[in-house]
Amino acid sequence: MLGGWSFGGIVTMASGRPFNVVQSGDTWNADALWPRPNAVPSVSPRLETRTADVWFNTAAFTRSTSYGTAPRNPVVGPALHTFDLSFSKAFRRPFKEGHALLFRSELFNIMNTPQLGTPGATLGTGTFGRVTSTAADNRQVQFALKYSF
How, if at all, do strands 6-14 and 18-19 pair? Predict the structure, then answer.
């Protein structure tokens, strides 16, 4: 019962992705799809301590009435770190040759670490600078039982 188990794992470690900051509305009446805000000089959008409520310094951006000065992809989103585990065992049937019972279990995001999504990136909305979603599911466990003959 204790021997013959197979184990497998997947570790995913990805850095956060940079993303653009835009402003809501067409303040300069040019039918712009993604108008950029202005970057406030000498104010960094990076914060030492980040939380889901305040992912970056929103005071680093102000609304523009012309083409904004904010650079491309000034902020980096949350990183992704997950650990998935699987284990299985085939039990041979001694009274029926060629018959087997396979038990398998898979555990996704076994540490149950929240995987934060990209923060709101539109200046002038209520979600600007806030993380309101997740990028991956919380812990999931599944079991399987298979009889081969």
Answer: unpaired
Residue 58: CB atoms within 10 A of its CB come to: 17
Count the Cβ atoms, other than its own, within 10 Å of residue 40: 15
pLDDT value at 83 more than 80: yes
**Is the pLDDT reported for residue 109 higher than 70?**
yes
Cβ atoms within 10 Å, residue 61: 28
pTM for this prediction: 0.75
State the total domains in the chain.
1
β 100-108/75-76 pair status: unpaired
Which residues constitute the domain of residue 67? Answer: 6-148
**pLDDT over 80 at 18, yes or no:** yes
Is residue 1 included in any domain, yes or no?
A: no
Q: Please report, rounded to a whole number, the percentage of residues in the chain having pLDDT higher than 70.
A: 95
The C-alpha atoms of residue 117 and residue 108 are separated, in whole angstroms, by: 18
**33 in a structural domain:** yes
Phi, psi of 60 (to 5 degrees): -80, -5
